[in-house]
Amino acid sequence: MSPAPGQPRWGDEQRAHEKDLLRRFATLDPDDPERSRLREDLVLMHLPLVRHLARRYRERGEAFEDLVQVGTVGLIKAVDRFDPDRGTEFSTYATPTILGEIKRHFRDRTWAIKVPRRLQELNASVAAATDSMTQSLGRAPTVRELAQELDVSEDEVLDALEARHAYATSSFDPADDDDAPARSLADSLGEVDEALAAVEDRESLRPLLEALPERERRLILLRFFQNKSQSQIADELGISQMHVSRLLARTLSQLREGLTAA
Amino acid sequence: MSDDVTLSFPADTANVRLARTIAAAMAARADLPVDQLEDVRLAVDEAVSQLVGDAESSTIITCVFTLTGDGLEIIVSGHTRTGAVPSTGTFSWTVLSALVDSVSASSAGRRVTLTLRVVRHIPVDA
Choosing among A230, A239, A254, which should be mutated to test the B contact, i.e. which has the most B CBs within 10 A? Predict the structure, then answer.
């Protein structure tokens, strides 16, 4: 039987029972219906642990039950992956996996949601004004010009630009439902080879560039090897200059990480 | 009154964003168009990350931002493990050269200095 919720300290008997279940679970064939029944028992048994861990993240603007739900996803993963022969306690093994899911939830969703509404709106206005002023001026506007155009302070414009780098992308960038790339993949891979000829760390760089989505790869080629400006690239790819800037920052930091790891 | 702004911080990746933020604010003061401002932010990110990556443990990275009238100069320096001047053949260098108008590197002892110069891309009559 499961221990009563809110009673995380188990007696020896419950601990022994947990071990039996985990051991039995690990031996069952993935298709065995008993396996899914056992998994359910194990998950229910450890829900208090999930609730305990989720409680640490209350007060951060996410509904507690949502946190328990994503934490439970981590718990299920832990149940599936646990190896009883390793000699580790299940709770020790499961805790980082559960916390990992909860943190990932915050990374993926909350930061994006928690951008203050005023900043989100300002960001959208700045992005739109940048693109329309670039059309009319024939170059990108300055922060001062944007502030005048939008009747806000220069600091506010800077905050709006900064927000795009400080927060998760999803609340700002339109969904990445790419139109078909203007050129074929083979073209851009050919360009990669050409561009890399002069770069001495090309052997580590090439696989990283090849692994990028087509649009990001084009972005890197256009900005760094063909010296197009962010505004020109925005025009060519049909996305806003702010979106170009955000994608460049993200892609560069990915490449840097990859090169460091290489 | 000097127009220099100096930022010093321990060589830790967590501090790189401080340099980015100040870079953007200084680029705004230099009246750069926003695409160039974002390039400056990326360039400082790249230069500082490069130095932080090579840094001796517990060294201090210093960034000096100077308004030059027609743009901005940024000098990033810190002690690295080898003191070697960064090679101009790397991808990182390619990136820096594309983002700013000129970039140069020097070293004295183990102190490596990267100098980035940015000239406002707006015609004078604008």
Answer: A230
Residues, chain B: 126
Stretch A183-201: mean pLDDT, rounded? 71
- pLDDT for B75-117, tens place per residue? 999 999 999 998 899 999 999 999 999 999 999 999 999 999 9
CB contact under 8 A, B38 and A143: no
Interface touch B28/A255, C-beta < 8 Å: no
Question: Given A158, A223, A231, which is nearest B98 (Cβ)?
Answer: A223
> In chain A, whose CA is at the least distance from the CA of B43?
A249
Q: What is the mean pLDDT of residues B24-51?
A: 95
Q: What is the pTM of this model?
A: 0.67
What's CA A158's distance to the chain center, in Å?
Answer: 24
**A252: nearest CB among B24, B46, B89:** B46
Are B114 and B103 contacting, i.e. CB atoms less than 8 angstroms apart?
yes
Nearest CB to B39; choose among A225, A230, A255? A230
Could you tell me the domains of chain B? Answer: 4-119 (3.30.565.10)
DSSP 3-state of A198: coil
- d(CA B50, CA A100) in angstroms, rounded, equals 29
Distance (Å) from the alpha carbon of A124 to chain B's nearest alpha carbon: 15
Q: How far is CA A198 from the centre of its chain?
A: 33
Nearest 5°: the CA angle B12, B21, B29 is 140
* Nearest chain B residue to A198, by CA: B89
Per-residue confidence (pLDDT) for residue A137, from 0 to 100 = 92
- DSSP H helices in B55-123: 91-99
Compute, in degrees rounded to 10, the torsion defined by CA atoms A239, A242, A243, A245.
120
Mean pLDDT of all residues in A242-250: 88
Q: How far apart are the first and last CA of chain B?
A: 27
Residues of chain A neighbouring B38 (CB-CB closer than 8 A): 161, 230, 241, 245, 248-249
Q: Can you tell me the distance from the alpha carbon of B61 to that of B69, in angstroms, rounded to the nearest whole number?
A: 25
